[in-house]
């Protein structure tokens, strides 16, 4: 199923709103996304839940990284590598890891995702981003 029409012109990252690593990843992407092509939504938010549902993905799996781009859903390491390809600087060079079979890449991804709260922490409240970041979050599904 396709995302709503107003979302088709952008790439949307769905992130765990309680994960400190995910918060850092969001800031990392915003800082390097010179073309402002990426928008964000928490997996737990109404927008995130709607996009997960439209993509046929589990609504309670917050251990996954989801990139919605041109109506395609890319998850885990594949989504992360597609994001890196869209950033400025040398980050797109890491897209070369796409030659590694997804099964192997996702073993590393799952290991990090399974330990992210222990290593980076968890918060009960969503981060309070600055205006530059806040402007790039979907507000209840509206771009």
Helical coverage, percent range = 25-40%
Number of helical stretches of at least 4 residues? 5
H and E string: EHEHEEHHH
Q: Strand pairing plus helix content: what structural class?
A: alpha+beta
Mean pLDDT: 80
Characterise the protein shown here.
It is a single chain. With about 140 residues, this protein is an alpha+beta fold. The protein has one domain (about 5-135). Helix content is about 40%, strand content about 15%. The protein has five helices and four strands, in the order E-H-E-H-E-E-H-H-H. It has a four-stranded mixed β-sheet, sandwiched between helices. A hairpin with a 2-residue loop joins strand 3 (about 65-70) and strand 4. The longest helix has 19 residues, at about 100-120. The protein starts with 10 loop residues before the first strand and ends in a 9-residue tail after the last helix.
